[in-house]
Amino acid sequence: MAYSSMSRRGFLGLAAGAGAGMALAACGSSGPSQGGGSGGEASYWFLTAPPAEQIRTNTVNRFNQANPDTQIKHNAFENDAYKTKIRTALGAGQAPTIIWGWGGGGLKSWVEAGQVDDLTDWFAQNAAVKDRLFPSSFGAATVNGKIYAMPCETVEPIVLFYDKRAFDRIGAEPPQSWGDIMDLVPKFNAKGIAPFSLAGQSRWTNMMWLEFLFDRIGGSEVFQAVFDGEKDAWSNPASLDALTKVQDLVKANGFVKGFSSVVADANADQALLTTGKAAMMVHGTWTYGSMEQEGGDFVSGGNLGYMNFPPVDGGKGDPTNTVGNPAQYLSISSKATAEQKETAKKFFSTAVLDDTEVGEWLNTGGVPIVKGSEGKIASAKDPEFLEFIYQTASNAKVFAQSWDQALSPTAAEALLDNIAKLFQLSISPQQYVDNMNQVIGK
């Protein structure tokens, strides 16, 4: 499943196979500060949210302790705030030395603006650094055949989580099709349990529903056409079908009341599931760690269930397909000093995904993108969940990158805005299609 052996699939492309490469994302804090730094002191911005934030912080601290003359100052921000801040900082030439990101369309825009360094030669000179990582993790780090980011962290497919207790209350089994999902909605509502938790105010959480519905109904080629910039690609009949189905779910009270005011950064959507107020939640596997830490005995007590998103009756998509983050990515600002860049590269080669960090990811429910990680699953904290992640990612015919990361920042913002309006029922499926066709390729 090496990226170089695949035909061009754009942002798509983790083929099946137990030995396949995989990679994941998560979300990592201190207060805000400007980028740069003096001399060889490098700066590093990343996302908040436990447990990933602490793991990132621990890695920086270990590096600083081992390298007293080449320090890294780190700062963390919530998801949406980070996206705005990093875009502004890059545009102003004030980006941190090390830029945490998702690869894909966002990275491509940075490359085109000359804001990040080409790391191709560095990886060629440091083959051992590249060779220990899953080959497929380099796909979203590559622009026009050159590598502009260091893949890091873990492999994170998006899955359907559920509360086993809720299903016991209504005497039902987890859904095996879209029809099952719609049949379960009134049954959970009758018991006073929200069928699905959703942090709608964060917008990207809504997007995960469409990512699966588009795939399950029309196959991966539907969004591939959007990614490739084909004119009116959103007008595919499968698109309208998916958009209509998600509004049917909203109208049937499939989501928790007031979902459009729930925020993901505060883990409020996860709390609704762990406290028994919602039966199911479509979300990334990165949420496992925070549910385990903050959800009382929900995870340790065996109440958490998980599965790949079910197929849609009559759909063309392969039910093994998944979507999410093939890896997280670290780029180096082109505006950094030579000393800062050297510090960043030393961090990449000696600290990122060292043995301690790999163990920390495994113990918080993540599968690191380091070759051989699968061999350590059996001795990790929750081997069953880790094996589920590994199998979901490695058996997927297509592992698609999250839409808002695959597209350019301009198109991604229009995407998230229109998805929010779609879920709020303030635009129709056809209006969504018309609006999004206007930003294809932008």
UniProtKB/TrEMBL annotation:
SUPFAM superfamilies: Periplasmic binding protein-like II (SSF53850)
A Pfam family recorded for this sequence: SBP_bac_1
Keyword Signal: yes
Keywords: Signal
Signal peptide coordinates: 1-25
Source organism, top-level taxon: Bacteria
Protein name in UniProt: Sugar ABC transporter substrate-binding protein
Native organism: Phytohabitans flavus
